[in-house]
Design goal:
By secondary structure, the protein is an alpha/beta fold. The chain folds into two domains: 6-187, 3-Layer(aba) Sandwich (Rossmann fold), CATH 3.40.50; 196-398, Phosphoglycerate kinase, N-terminal domain (Rossmann fold, 3-Layer(aba) Sandwich). Helices cover 39% and strands 15% of the residues. The chain has helices at residues 36-50, 75-85, 98-105, 128-133, 135-149, 168-176, 186-200, 215-226, 238-245, 260-273, 313-324, 345-359, 369-377, 391-398, 404-407, and strands spanning 15-19, 54-58, 90-92, 112-115, 154-157, 182-184, 206-210, 231-234, 276-278, 283-286, 295-298, 307-311, 328-332, 363-366, 386-387. It has a six-stranded parallel sheet with strand order 3-4-2-1-5-6, sandwiched between helices. Helix 5 (135-149) packs across helix 6, helix 8 runs parallel beside helix 10 (260-273) and helix 9 packs across helix 10 (260-273). The longest helix has 15 residues, at 36-50.
């Protein structure tokens, strides 16, 4: 997917509408607790401003369900952006309407403004399928998108976190700006380079690590990766569905009984494809789902009153060994209840092993979400080749799904 980037076009004296992912975490006082997503958008923002573009930024924050909610205002983001850019970022108190249009019209080259939360308008999240089936919804989505599209001469998408969605700002707006430059920012360019190129031509051995709660969330990923990787290491609660499919007792562990046949089929398919699926050989179990609960390590069956909380010490060693010679590593999902000590040891061990593999010359990609949080908590961000900014988006990318909102943007 070789898309034109903002570097390929002239922005001097032009109004540029840029979709960002400023869905930042806030505390009860609406203070930003991590500005990571803002910082990651800065290279594209600065490039446009330095080359004389007048930049209009838009994003969503949280799930306000089409209603204005001051707790989910992007005003704190405008304040933080002003500090990071060392210039006053003008804030529009709505993303559409006469006042916003006037602000955009008078925005000077080299200056920046931020629109209020797109999701304060229900039209932003109308699904394209629903819009096709309902003329009223289609009209509402189009009218909203038309107002956004009218603000600028150029469209830039740098929001990988929502690249798998057909929101109005991600799909309908660039569709309406056909004939004008529609490009990606440097953040999405990096995502496509790492996720796309790695999956196309991975250096071998290629190892995937999959964890998290549900097999159902990862079926598409496993099916897509089986033909590409040398081995898949499976941890987290999804491992218990595989255990049960293999005839083991899993006690009160999270298990998707509806997917037992699918788990068996995946194991068979992997065997036929020459892909080694590595399941845990021991498990840390507890009777209670709470921090520092009384726990023990078992191999094999889990008694009825106990539940699996993490991969065990022998599995940690095994996974570290299986990662040692890797040249390409993709990781999505924790190995246990990583936010609850002492059930974070498995995730920690894998994070350190991935960092070590990277030190040894491997290309490592972490697919956002909980895995990215675990790496950040351990201060290992600089030891990973690429940490995706989109949890759900990176997962769908690993499944091999097409992103319509990227497909309509300009090709190189």
């Amino acid at each position: 997917m070789a898309k034109k980037t903002v570097a390929d076009i002239d922005v001097q004296g032009k109004k540029v509408l840029m979709r960002c992912d400023f869905n930042v975490p806030l505390d009860d006082q609406c203070n930003i607790t991590s500005d990571d997503r803002i910082v990651k958008a800065l290279p594209t923002i600065k490039n446009i401003l330095d080359r004389g573009g007048a930049l209009i930024l838009m994003s969503h924050l949280g799930r306000p369900a089409g209603q204005k909610d001051e707790k989910l205002s992007l005003a704190p983001v405008a304040k933080r952006l002003s500090e990071l850019l060392a210039q006053q970022v003008s804030f529009a108190h709505d993303c559409v309407g006469a006042e916003t249009q006037a602000k955009a019209r008078t925005l000077n080259s080299g200056r920046c403004m931020l629109l209020e939360n797109l999701r304060f308008h229900k039209e932003e999240t109308i699904k394209d399928k629903a819009a096709k089936e309902d003329a009223q919804l289609r009209q509402a989505k189009d009218d909203f998108a038309k107002q956004l599209a009218a603000l600028a001469d150029i469209y830039v998408d740098d929001a990988f976190g929502t690249a798998h969605r057909d929101n109005a700002s991600m799909y309908t707006v660039p569709k309406m700006m056909e004939g004008k430059p529609r490009v990606i920012g440097f953040l999405i360019e990096k995502e496509l380079r790492f996720l796309g190129d790695t999956l196309k031509e991975p250096e071998k051995p290629f190892v995937a690590i999959l964890g998290g709660a549900k097999v159902s969330d990862k079926i598409g990923v496993i099916e897509n990766l089986i033909e590409k990787v040398d081995r898949i290491l499976i941890g987290g609660a999804m491992a218990y569905t595989f255990f049960k499919a293999n005839g083991q007792q899993v006690g009160k562990s999270l298990c998707e009984d509806d997917f037992l046949d699918k788990a068996t089929a995946l194991l068979e398919r992997a065997k036929d494809a020459g892909c080694e699926i590595v399941l845990p050989v021991d498990t840390v179990i507890a009777k209670e789902f709470k921090p520092n609960a009384k726990n023990k390590v078992v191999s094999g069956n889990i008694d009825p009153e106990w539940q699996g909380m993490d991969i065990g010490p022998e599995t940690r060693k095994l996974f570290v060994e299986k990662l040692a010679a890797a040249k390409t590593v993709v990781w999505n999902g924790p190995m246990g209840v990583f936010e609850m000590p002492p059930f974070d040891e498995g995730t920690k061990a894998v994070a350190l092993a991935v960092a070590q593999a990277t030190d040894n010359g491997a290309s490592s990609i972490i697919g956002g979400g909980d895995s990215a949080s675990a790496v950040a908590n351990l201060g290992l961000q600089d030891k990973i080749s690429h940490i995706s900014t989109g949890g759900g988006a990176s997962l769908e990318f690993l499944e091999g799904k097409k992103f319509v909102c990227l497909e309509i943007l300009d090709e190189k």
